[in-house]
Every structure is written in structure tokens, then in C-alpha cells.
Design a protein that fits this description.
elongated, about 45% helix, mainly alpha, 5 helices
Length: about 110
């Protein structure tokens, strides 16, 4: 939050951490474990909050969290967990001619686009 033009106020988005799961699973799982064990209210109601900030204290809480979850953030969590688990999401993306055309038009080449 605040980057790149404003000051960083220390807000962490746990859902964004999960978005990196297919790329750095060990680091992501370690970070999530640290957050969930150290701050169990993060995993409230079986979802992750869109933000978390220890520097903004609320009465009876370890830090600030929004009162509601964002469906967009939860979608990232579900798709990246499944992609890490089975590779399904990326397999489906590779089969889509629309995705391949879009990536080529954006200048990407090589790999599975070849």
C-alpha cells in the first residue's frame, strides 16, 4: 500500500502472498504459516483478509484488518492453491488460443508459446 508513489504504511496483503505460491512455494508457505500462527485472526472465517497491518492497533486486536473480504482476493487464493497443487490453471491457460495470441501480441515468445 502506498507504493510506488506514497509512503509504505506496512500493510500486508496475505492474498497477494498466496498469489506467489506457484513461483516460490517454500517462501510462501513459510510466510503464511508465520502469519496464521502468530496472528490467528488473519484466517478468520476460513478466508484471508485483503490487508493486515500491525502498526494500526484496534482495541483487543493485534492489528488492523478490513471488516470484509474481497472476492477478487479470494479468487487469487483459490486459483493459485489449485495451480500449485495440480498445475490445472496453467494447463488450461496454455490450451487457450486467446491467451497465446494475447501473449504473442504483447511480445512474449519461446517456452510453451513456441
Amino acid at each position: 500500500r502506498g507504493a510506488p508513489f506514497g509512503p509504505d504504511d506496512g500493510t500486508i496483503n496475505p492474498c497477494a502472498i498466496v498469489g506467489s505460491l506457484p513461483f516460490a512455494p517454500d517462501i510462501v508457505l513459510s510466510a503464511l504459516n508465520h502469519l496464521c500462527v502468530g496472528y490467528p485472526e488473519i484466517a478468520r472465517r476460513g478466508t484471508l483478509p485483503s490487508g493486515f497491518n500491525l502498526s494500526f492497533q484496534r482495541k483487543g486486536s493485534a492489528g488492523w484488518m478490513p471488516d470484509m473480504e474481497s472476492g477478487l482476493d479470494q479468487g487469487i487464493v483459490v486459483t493459485m492453491i489449485e495451480n500449485h497443487r495440480s498445475g490445472l490453471i496453467w494447463r488450461l491457460m496454455r490450451r487457450s488460443p486467446h491467451v497465446a495470441v494475447g501473449l504473442r501480441r504483447a511480445g512474449f515468445a519461446g517456452g510453451w508459446l513456441s
